[in-house]
Amino acid sequence: MDSRIIDIIISSFPQILLPGLTMTIPLTVISFSLALLIAIVTATVQYARIRIVKDIVRFYIWITRGTPVLVQLYVVFYGLPSVGITLDPFIAAVIVFSLNEGAYASETIRAALEAIPDGQREAGLSLGFNFFQVMANIIYPEALRIAFPSLFNALIGMVKDTSLAANITVLEMFMATQRIVARTYEPLLLYIEVAVIYLIFCTVLTKLQSYGEKKLNKYTVETV
Question: According to DSSP H, which parts of 127-186 are helical?
Answer without folding.
Answer: 131-134, 140-161, 173-184
